[in-house]
Structures are given as C-alpha cells and as structure tokens.
Amino acid sequence: MIKKTKGIKTPADLRGKTIAINSMGSTTRYYLMVLLGRNGMTESDFN
User: Per-domain residue ranges for the chain?
Assistant: First the structure.
C-alpha cells in the first residue's frame, strides 16, 4: 500500500524506493518481476 501523499502514480515512480515482498519464491515476487520488466526496470532500480 502507498499513501496518497507519496506521489506514486506509475510504476516508474517506484524507482529508488524500497519494495517489500513476503517471500523470494512467492507469486507476489513473480508478478513484481513481470511489472518491472514491462516497465523497463530491474531489481537493481530499487533499494
């Protein structure tokens, strides 16, 4: 979840932020990697 005041409107706005997932082998991580890839980003774009 993201607070409205953080100004995050697109996936690219997440660049440089910290993203938390529940497990490295989870479906959540899989879909995060798909989202990143579709937006030209990799894990190295985040803290």
Answer: 4-45
